[in-house]
Amino acid sequence: MILYTMVPNDLVFPTDGSEFSGQMMINYQGVPLLVQQEENKYRIIRVMSSDPAHYLNDQICPGEYLNN
């Protein structure tokens, strides 16, 4: 892959893992989710399921909050 950019390599390919801080995998109602904890609730970052029916559930879409 060739990437033509003026952005420094450290920003394009971070190595410290700071962009993933506070994120974890959970299983919510049988659906694997990548979430980030914010105060006393979790914000859904990504649905990690391979089942297309899980993506149609509007309660577990990215950006929604799950109470702790």
Automatic annotation (TrEMBL):
Q: Which Pfam families match?
A: YlzJ
Q: Which domain of life is it from?
A: Bacteria
Q: What's the protein name?
A: Ribonuclease
